[in-house]
Amino acid sequence: MAEPIALAALALDAAIGWPAWLYARIGHPVGLFARLITACERRWNTAARSEGRRRALGTLTMLLVLLASGGTGWLVEQAILSLAGEAGWPLIALAAWPALAQRSLHDHVRPVLDALRAFDLPAARRAVAMIVGRDTRRLDDLGVARAATESLAESFCDGVVAPLVWLVVAGLPGLWAYRAINTADSLIGHPEPPLRAFGWAAARTDDLANLVPARLAAGLLCLAGGGGWRIAWRDHARHASPNAGWPEAAMAGALGVRLAGPVSYDGEVSTKPWIGEGRSADSAALARALSIYLRACGLLWILALGVAWLV
Q1: What is the Cα–Cα distance from 248 to 152, expressed in whole angstroms?
Q2: Which of 96, 88, 86, 100 has the alpha carbon at shortest distance from 2?
Q3: For strand 279-280 and strand 257-260, is the pairing parallel, antiparallel, or unpaired?
Q4: What pTM was computed for the model?
Q5: DSSP-derived secondary structure for 59-128
Q6: What's the confidence (pLDDT) of residue 269?
Q7: 27: helix, strand or coil
């Protein structure tokens, strides 16, 4: 289908995002996946079961989640096509729009920058706590800026590039299946007990789903930032994730700063290696990171337009 579904979905997301009033009334579709995943985890991931049993039940959870998300996407897409044919492409774009987080990501990172510029560290910590999982209560201004920059780079892949790639490759079923996979990885795909065995399938599925998008995201960030290729190639493997290191290293290289490094989770320090070189990220680096992000989104728009023209 040559209609610009991906471009239209990007435009809808950029224009209105997922409005707060709508979220307050109906939540977000991803919340449905989260409830299913959480219900399965509470019922099946119990200490009484062996690790092998929990891994099997975690795999079953992923199959159920994929069936629910991809199946619903397929039903919606087929219903639109049966009613309107190819002329129904704007409705498919409308159904795809909530799965993109282009505007939402910017709207969550911008308050961190604004608070840092106002020298309001408590407000900056509260804002960055909305987008990262690490402890933020003791972060200084450089720690806050680093955390926000890392989250922006990684979420560019998870929330923008990867959903769009799967929309182009597999339509609504692929798009919503990806969002369910990514949600599952966030909730249960942890390498530590008690989720290590149960979340194994979620983590591995997410690794596979992001294999191409992560590298595409890194390339877009390097292009948008006018550099960063050397650091992306050299340092991507320093991240624990086989994919998240690509956009993070690309952003670090484009900015000429260090990201990652030691972080605290639940009161315990995790000694992660540094990604990039140079000084620590600060508010100025975060401001440049947001500019790079916006230019990278613009490049993604161009790619979406090219796909619509070529297909």
Answers
A1: 9
A2: 86
A3: parallel
A4: 0.94
A5: HHHHHHHHHHHHHHHHHHHHHHHHHHGGGGHHHHHHHHGGG--HHHHHHHHHHHHHHHHTT-HHHHHHHH
A6: 59
A7: coil
Q: What is the CA radius of gyration of the chain?
A: 19
Q: What token pair was written down for 167?
A: 């929309």
CB-based contact 12:94 (threshold 8 Å): yes
Which pLDDT tens digit goes with each residue over 165-210?
999 999 999 999 999 999 999 999 998 889 999 999 999 999 999 9
- What 3-state DSSP class applies to 260? strand
Q: Which residue has the higher pLDDT, 310 or 198?
A: 198
**Cis ω before 194 (30° cut-off from 0):** yes
Are 99 and 175 spatial neighbours (Cβ–Cβ below 8 Å)?
yes
Neighbours of 33 (CB within 10 A): 23
Q: What is the Cα–Cα distance from 87 to 288, expressed in whole angstroms? A: 41
Tens of pLDDT, residue by residue over 71-125, are: 999 999 999 999 999 899 999 999 999 999 999 999 999 999 999 999 999 999 9
Q: Furthest-apart CA pair in the chain: how many Å?
A: 57
**Which two structure tokens, joined as six digits, stand for 182?**
């990514």
Contact 36, 68 (CB under 8 A): yes
Task: Identify the burial level of 189 via C-beta atoms within 10 angstroms of its C-beta, where 0-12 means exposed, 13-18 middle and 19 or more buried.
Answer: buried
Neighbours of 86 (CB within 10 A): 10
Question: Measured on CA atoms in the order 263, 266, 267, 269, is the torsion positive or negative?
Answer: negative
Give the orientation angle of helix 102-117 with respect to helix 283-310, to 10 degrees: 160
Which tokens sit at 262?
């030691």
- Torsion, Cα of 35, 36, 39, 45 (10° steps): -120
